[in-house]
Write a structure and sequence with these properties.
The radius of gyration is 20 Å and the shape is flat. The protein has a single domain, classed as Four Helix Bundle (Hemerythrin (Met), subunit A) (Up-down Bundle). It has helices spanning about 10-20, 25-45, 50-75, 80-105, 110-135, 145-160, 170-200. The longest helix is centred in the middle third of the chain and has 28 residues, at about 80-105. It contains seven helices and no strands. It is mostly helical.
């Protein structure tokens, strides 16, 4: 028996129908997010940090919208979910790769290495969750979710390169925070999975 809370309102039904009728698919939004992040990576590589940061934010917004649009419109597919998750990893990776290239261009080997660690650890954060869930376990533990990483990197890009104000360059500290957060969150998720496997059977 359907409870009142489960009964969709007429407004909700009309909104969902409107979304369904739109000539738009979740995959198209995912591709738009990819394009936005490619543009961001090119701009960062050319050291246009503010514009690159804005493009990264817009591309990341698309990454958020595709999943919600998929659920609300009912147009989601299994491949679409796979594509969305895969593109999220690619997008974060190419922007961080552009940051590595900027540091390498200026001979800053230390920060180039830290940015590379940030890229690798961000992939590990996502992988540990996916692997845990593939084993039927919870893999969402830790502080360094994608949303948190996007916020930190966005701040670092927009306020990087002294473009907003002389002496204001938050790219370096944001990369260090991302690297540390990625390593820590990966360790948190590994420990969380181990704890679940060692928990007493009930």
């Amino acid at each position: 028996m359907t409870t009142p809370a489960e009964t969709p309102t007429p407004e909700r039904t009309k909104f969902q129908q409107w979304l369904t009728d739109l000539p738009l698919t979740p995959n198209a939004i995912s591709i738009a997010g990819l394009i936005g992040n490619i543009v961001a990576a090119v701009l960062v590589w050319q050291e246009h940090f503010v514009l690159g940061g804005i493009a990264f934010i817009l591309g990341s917004v698309m990454d958020t919208l595709d999943g919600r649009y998929s659920r609300l419109s009912g147009k989601g597919t299994t491949f679409g979910a796979f594509l969305d998750s895969t593109l999220d990893r690619i997008e974060e990776g190419i922007v961080l790769t552009a940051v590595v290239m900027v540091y390498a261009k200026h001979g800053d080997d230390v920060n180039a290495g830290i940015a590379a660690l940030a890229a690798v650890s961000s992939l590990l954060v996502s992988y540990t969750r996916a692997r845990a869930e593939g084993l039927g376990l919870d893999g969402k533990a830790g502080f360094g979710s994608r949303a948190v990483r996007v916020v930190i990197l966005s701040i670092g890009l927009v306020l990087g390169g002294n473009e907003i104000a002389d002496g204001l360059n938050l790219l370096d500290p944001s990369i260090w925070v991302l690297a540390a957060l990625g390593v820590f969150t990966t360790a948190q998720r590994m420990w969380h999975v181990r704890s679940q496997l060692n928990a007493p059977k009930t």
